[in-house]
């Protein structure tokens, strides 16, 4: 069984964790998150202008393993726990755009923790979590593929419940830029056919797209190769 510092029973079969962040990271459904350094969470500058939430100070005490001064009712503990998860997510969004946070997320990318692109012609390119907005409680997290430059819904229902604001709109692009990750764009695509013949309207569109791409390559010249 797992207990946090408030004595709350967490969901687990056999593992016991000493710190709240450790429990949160290894909880089922939280595989996309990395561990935020305690020093980062304790620096008030990093917490400036966070959206208001109930029991902010108690939630911060919980995620930084500070023992509360007074015992709380079960209802209060549940409310603090919800705020703590939300607060950690918002801090996480800021942390993963720092050099230390980017490094931790790069390791998760290398392990394929975020899954791989379902598009056949992307050949299992690893994905990165991204938010469609930086405003909390608006959109669930999506997964970005740097090869086809498109986004996808997570396969797991648990991951579809994660707030996209816990990763933000800039993270995957900052990581790819910071570590010079440039997946080769896939120029292959599926061509619909009927009895071996391309559908006329689709074939016409594909020819136009190919011509536009070739013209762009000529205009960009060496820049495209980079």
From TrEMBL:
Q: Name one GO cellular component term.
A: protein kinase CK2 complex
Species this chain originates from = Coemansia reversa (strain ATCC 12441 / NRRL 1564)
Lineage, opening ranks: Eukaryota, Fungi, Fungi incertae sedis, Zoopagomycota, Kickxellomycotina
What is the protein name stated in its UniProt record? Casein kinase II subunit beta
Q: Which SMART domains match?
A: CK_II_beta (SM01085)
GO biological process terms, alphabetically, are: regulation of transcription by RNA polymerase III
Subunit composition and interactions: Tetramer of two alpha and two beta subunits.
Annotated GO MF terms: protein kinase regulator activity
- Briefly, what is this protein's role? Regulatory subunit of casein kinase II/CK2. As part of the kinase complex regulates the basal catalytic activity of the alpha subunit a constitutively active serine/threonine-protein kinase that phosphorylates a large number of substrates containing acidic residues C-terminal to the phosphorylated serine or threonine.
Q: Which family does it belong to?
A: Belongs to the casein kinase 2 subunit beta family.
């Amino acid at each position: 069984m797992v207990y946090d510092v408030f004595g709350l029973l967490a969901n687990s079969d056999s593992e016991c964790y000493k710190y709240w962040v450790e429990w949160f990271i290894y909880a089922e459904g939280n595989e996309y998150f990395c561990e935020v350094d305690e020093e980062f969470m304790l620096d008030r500058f990093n917490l400036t202008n966070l959206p208001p939430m109930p029991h902010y100070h108690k939630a911060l005490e919980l995620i930084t393993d500070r023992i509360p001064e007074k015992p709380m009712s079960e209802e209060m503990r549940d409310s603090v726990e919800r705020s703590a998860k939300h607060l950690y997510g918002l801090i996480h969004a800021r942390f993963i755009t720092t050099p230390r946070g980017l490094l931790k997320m790069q390791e998760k990318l290398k392990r394929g923790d975020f899954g791989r692109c379902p598009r056949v012609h992307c050949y299992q390119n690893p994905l990165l979590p991204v938010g469609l907005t930086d405003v909390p409680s608006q959109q669930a997290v999506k997964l970005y593929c740097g090869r086809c430059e498109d986004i996808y819904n997570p396969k797991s229902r648990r991951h579809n419940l994660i707030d996209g604001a816990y990763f933000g709109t800039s993270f995957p692009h900052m990581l790819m830029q910071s570590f010079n990750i440039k997946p080769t764009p896939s120029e292959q695509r599926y061509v619909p056919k009927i009895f071996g013949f391309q559908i006329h309207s689709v074939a016409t569109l594909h020819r136009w797209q190919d011509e536009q791409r070739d013209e762009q390559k000529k205009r960009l010249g060496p820049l495209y190769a980079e």
